[in-house]
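Team,

Forwarding the record for the chain on the shared tracking sheet. I've put the sequence and predicted structure together so nobody has to dig through attachments.
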Amino acid sequence: MNAFLRCQVAPGMFSDEVAVRAVAADGKEFSLFVNNGLAEFDESEFVREPVEGWLRVEVFAREGDLALVRLPEQAFENGQTVTVSESQLEIRPPRETV
């Protein structure tokens, strides 16, 4: 099931990527670089400071208020899967781009 994970989005090293930082269920932060199209954020506020955003993820399993998700790329700290709190997720289709 596709979903979106609440995160912080900052400019990446290249023009077609962004740096993403989010928090796992255990409270530890993780970070990764992804293609611009895999994150949703307000581009009008996106300059140098991180902005609130959403990262497209795939939900593998749910138990209680936890969800195991597959990230679109490998995180530096813990690989491509991470357990997050359900409250950090939105189950919805991607937003339309104009």
